[in-house]
Specification:
Helices cover 48% and strands 0% of the residues. By secondary structure, the chain is an all-alpha fold.
């Protein structure tokens, strides 16, 4: 958590589909969890409204501003033109999950994209007019949920938070006996 700013985040701007209320990058002084709404802004225009390169670098735990900017750009590209309104969520995931390196940053973005994909599919499933469409969106949502779970597990493994499973069955050690923990390889009777 050392990379978060001690200054409070700026007051959020009201949401609207135009770019007139989007905070320009130079107005952002430090990492923040709040980003302006960018719905309806093209990908080319969107780059103008990213947090500063330094803020992205800190937010995503990256070594260079350029790499952080490219990760943010590919994140928004993953949303497609119609999903740019979810840009705030993807960038906020950087602040929330605090990636410490490039691999973690990419996994955090993939987690966010899988979440958006799943929720979008579920919404379309709920609004579907026929069973065939509902079933199709249900399958998409299930695949996106599985991708979400897989990415979270990959992030945990990368961070070293998994603990190896140790299973010990029933062990009986009689008086004077010794227990061996580990793999035992017996030599064949013809080996000496």
């Amino acid at each position: 958590m050392a990379h978060r700013s001690s200054t409070p985040p700026p007051t959020p701007t009201p949401a609207s589909p135009d770019a007139s209320n989007v905070m320009p990058p130079e107005s952002i002084k430090g990492p923040t969890r709040q980003f302006a709404n960018t719905a309806g802004v093209s990908l080319d225009e969107l780059a103008k409204y990213f947090p500063s390169p330094e803020e992205l670098r800190v937010m995503f735990g990256m070594r260079t501003d350029r790499a952080a900017n490219l990760v943010a750009t590919t994140a928004v590209m993953g949303l497609g033109e119609s999903g740019t309104g979810y840009r705030d969520l993807l960038l906020a995931m950087g602040a929330e999950l605090e990636p410490q390196d490039a691999i973690e940053a990419m996994l955090v973005i993939q987690i966010g994209l899988a979440h958006v994909g799943s929720m979008t599919a579920m919404g379309r499933m709920a609004d579907a007019k026929n069973d065939q469409a509902r079933e199709g969106y249900s399958r998409i949502a299930a695949r996106m949920n599985q991708a979400f779970i897989n990415q979270i597990e990959a992030l945990r493994r990368h961070r070293g938070r998994t603990t190896p499973a140790v299973s010990v069955g029933q062990v009986t050690v009689n008086e004077g006996g010794q227990a061996i923990v580990g793999t035992v390889h017996a030599k064949a009777s013809h080996e000496k």
